[in-house]
Amino acid sequence: MTKKLFNQIKNEWRSNLWLMAELLLVSVVMWFIVDYLYVQYSIYNQPRGFDTNHCYHIVMGTLLPSDADYNPSDTVQVNDVEELMDRLKRRPDIDAVSLSYVSFPYNTSNMWQPVTSGKLKRENVFAKNVTPGFFRVFEIKGARGESSDQLSKMLTGKVIMLSNDLYKDNYRVDMTSLIGRKFIAGGDSANISTLAAAYKPIRYSDYMEASESYSYIMPLSRTDISINMELCVRVKEGQDVDFSEKLWKDADKQLRVGNVYISDVESFSDIRKSFQQNDTNQTRNYIFGMGFLMLNIFLGLLGTFWFRTQQRRSELALFKALGATKGNVFVRQIVEGLLLLVIATIPAILIDANIAFAGLNQKMDGMTLTSGRFIITVLITWLLIAIMIVLGNWLPAKKAMGIQPARALHEE
Fold it and tell me: How confident is the model at residue 274, as a pLDDT?
């Protein structure tokens, strides 16, 4: 049957040419969207390097001299902030507390610094200055299997910790092999720190790859502590129900230290949602666009194959008169559409490859064209269009199966 279909497709090349041109255009557009969604899905499901479940950001404020409760003798904020941290640590519902500067995940504020050691150099590295509890709050793990507790104990003195992939792409160096080596962060040759550990890469967001989120962590200097720091806590599992409300109840009596007080409590689920809203909306728009495109493909193919079936009533009637079953008629219609798709897919693949080679599609791991990714996206695209062809053929093919040979030939 396949050979006969090829001959028929060849004989009806004029009408089939327009259909294949339609399938070619649809295939290229569909592949571009599939490739984008495939990259987004792959990046989204990469390890984040941290965990913000049960985490909260506590915003600190300070009383002004005009406030009734202002204490003019309380001028050292660092003592007040440290006391507030200690009180939070003693709460039975809190597991860990940290203080940091532009360092917590999903942060709209950032600081970039170069990191060098001899010939090794990386510009624009996310700088994170934190207290040891930062590792426990966000469950950051070491590249050699160190727990967050072990990393927190290492963050003391003149040390630095680096993302394990910091020099991976340029120098093919694993940071764990450089532990104990001296590094300069920030370009100041007087600021030399010893690499204490390498941690698993921390991504900037769910939509950004680890290779675009290189970072280093250093101890937060006590002299820099102020209410402008990021006070973050991890709540014990099962204890974060109404955590914000319970914290507010104690805010004035137990969590007010000198002139320092709690001004806001933010859940990291809300911070994450707000930070990634634009990326989420863009991905959703692509998904809706793909759905709309698939609906148009289905309606277009339905109309096209319905019209083709109506034109072939006498041919199908003769086919049945020669002994073909209803199933033969149905399979014949479906296989013809799929054969046309296979023929149209060949030039579509060439166009897709040139688009990727030119770097017009989404990058992943710094590349727009890899064999595995290309094969997967082409197969997904072909399968989606094939499903649309089957659905588009279903109704006209089902109607064609009910054609009575004598009646159809008589009408012809």
Answer: 95
